[in-house]
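Anyone else keep sequences and structure tokens together like this?

Example one:
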Amino acid sequence: MARRKTQVARSRIGEAVIREIWVRAAGRCVLCSSYLLGGGRTYFHHIPHGQVAHNVGATTGKKSPRGKSSLTLDERALPENLLLLCHQCHRMVDDIGAEKIYNEEYLARHKREHEDRVRQVTNFATVTPAAVVRVTGRIRGTLSAATDRQVGAALHYEDLRPAGEHPHDSEYVVTIESEDTDSWVWDEGSKKIATRLAALRDSPHATVAVFAMAPIPLLVFLGSQLDDKSDIRVFPRFRDAEDLACCWRNEPATPAVFELSSSVADATAKDVVVAVSVSGVVDADRAQADLIGAPRVSLRASELGPDAIQTKSDLTAFASAWRRTLAKVESDYPACERIHLLAAVPVVAAVACGQHHMRDAQPALVVYQRAAEEYVEALTVS
């Protein structure tokens, strides 16, 4: 007996519809704006030709990207649900797990905006050029720099492109080779970061994209060196979806919550310990002995974990909470000269700690590194 075929066949996309999609997009990828009527090269891959892709998947099967929808199979083959993509963007948006980033609403918005631009005098000059900063230091002996593919994916997801004629014309790269257990790594790393970012401040770039993976003290120092007069975009680093590891997530919709608490106010205290627990728990009792009796301020994510900060709204909420923390220190401990920062935070939160610390107006920020069972002083931002 012949086996019954149970798979639901997708509706065929007609030639007229395919031509309409190409015309609507003016032969350019809806996501990265690559010209698709011939071979070309973007920041991180070759583009042989364009592909008509589905937003809501062609079928309702488990392997159909964004396939859970009330749209019928015929409706899924209509122009409203189709968009023109380059091969690499098509592969990325349909990758396993990509629906967390490239969801139906995101793709529909980019299709609509791109096609609107085509109708408005075919003007595609809406992608913002940006300088790219890459900072990499050893974490537990390993250097893990953001790859070209990860940087490229994150940039075009945010409607950015590398400034200059060549992608590497506007790159500012810092690599710190020393181990995070070497006492000199903090001096070496901070000097390298300060020197490279000084060159960035003398550049004409108004927008800066930051990709960093290094020990927390160096990330805090990096944040302190970023010019607050520029449009700074700091990108995350997630463990899943390899090519999309530096892309912000679209969910959850509700920003993360961060709770602030402190010990009794003390008008004479010169040293205050600030424990920031986001990706894990900070045990302030493991601070160096001379800080055990110092006043403490705690900033803690309501839901701890490596994914506590997944969206740009989460990062905005953290930055706001961190500023409140600094204000709390100033109001409750007016004689404070040094804030001793013990932090278990994601990359972007560490950078934010440095960015939002006002060096000229607030107490010096002494940043610690977790070493075995204690926190060891690493560097001071002042």
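And example two:
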Amino acid sequence: MEKLTFGWEEWVSLPDLGLPAMKAKVDTGARTSALHAHDIEVFGSAKNPKVRFNVHPIAGREDMAITCSAPLVDRREVTSSNGEAEQRYVISSTLAVNGQSWPIEITLTNRAGMSSRMLLGRQALSDHISISPTERHLQPELSYDDYHSSALKRRAPKRALRIAVLSREDNYSTRRLTEVGEARGHVVEVIDTTRCYMAINNLAPEVHYDGKRLPRYDAVIPRIGASITPYGTAVIRQFEAIGTYCVNGSAGITASRDKLHAHQVLATRRIGMPSTAFAASPKDTSNLMALVGTAPLIVKLLESTQGKGVVLAETKKAAESVIDAFRGLRANFLVQDFVKEAAGEDIRCLVIAGKVVAAMKRTGAEGDFRSNLHRGGSAKVVRITREERETAVKAARAFNLGKAGVDLLRSSTGPKVLEVNSSPGFEGIEKASGKDIVGKLYDEIETRVRPQPVRKRKS
């Protein structure tokens, strides 16, 4: 390495933490380096602990904070220059100066009263560094403008994230979300939605779980079952109020779960779907059916899932009987045109971040018009048309869903959206397509929670 000379203050960067430019005071009297940090929080397992914290990299700019995380190396007592002892968390990171870099240990502490956001102690000064204590900025000057540039987001490291999966089930999808996240170095915690409770106030909204306040999560992945939609979306709204990134928002889940609401949203966006009619208690069943077309017809409960509560009425008489039965149960239902040319098949498009990442054709079990895999249907990968791809993306976007399963029917007049599922399973489509769908979801999460460019303050 080329020998470097440091003055008493130098520009440095910490690329592992996403901090491209910082002023550091060089203090050979101090053994350990220190970084100004706040909101320090330990997470992860006892065998592999991590620490997350926020850094104000520019003195006097409390409006700008960069969230960092790093493996936790130690916790030790450090005595400051004024003789005060403090227990500090210790991390390891890379220090970069003038094209050279090397690993150093850093303690995390509050340096709010210091002009330098960082202190470099003896341990950080390698053998090839000499000190000129009467000078400063002997190494190339860096720019705080890097914090305002879109390049900050592109260059930001893939730091360890703390992620909550809201799920009550130990199934393939939940296990995959946990396994893939942990394989990427993140900490993934599965939270039973029904065991969450909320402290609702205007200053500090909180979510509690099993007697404790839940920590700040970088992201929440909702997998809310249909039976607990109202409570589950209330929990998600609470995370949204805190400012946590939720892959699917509460409003989109609520709208997609109510089939009447969902079809109204699709109609508003002029997205193709089967002709649909709804009434609370029509006196004239024949008129209701006439709004849709002739038999055969589909009669569907508003909150049906996995093909349950969906009936094919092959004749007008059969449709009248089913409608009368549902009405007798005071159940809310839709009447839809049956797309004959679909022939018991539909296409499930998995949309993540506005892109169709996989598609499969689902075929119903013999004698069953429903193609749901939960009801014995089969699936195989399928090539979709440009129109089908655009329709699926448009449908997911209509509900502002970061991940969605969009079910399409192939009709003689183009693709028809049958349903937009806000909690699609991953097993069928991963096995059919051979793609790492969960990995693509984590790609989007990692992108969304990286440091965001900060606008310059107006002068």
